[in-house]
Amino acid sequence: MSVLDPNVAIWVISALAIAGVIFRPLNGPEWVFAVAGAALLALFGLLPFGEVGAGIASGTDVYLFLIGMMLLAEVARLEGLFDYLAAFAARRAKGSPKRLFTLVYAIGTLVTVFLSNDATAVVLTPAVAAMARAAKAPSPMPYLLVCAFVANAASFVLPISNPANLVVFGADMPPLAEWLARFALPSMVAILVTFWLLRWTQAKDLAGETSRDVAIPHLSLGGRIAAVGIVVTAIVLLSSSALGADLGTPTAIAGGLTALAVVIGERSSPWPMVKGVSWSTLLLVAGLFVIVRALEISGLEEMLVTAFQGPLNGSPAFGAAVAGTALAFGTNLTNNLPLGLMAGAFTTAAHLPDQVVDAILIGVDLGPNLSVTGSLATILWLTALRRENLSFSAWRFLKLGLLMMPAALLPALGVVILQGMWR
Question: Against a cut of 0.90, is the pTM above it?
Answer without folding.
Answer: no
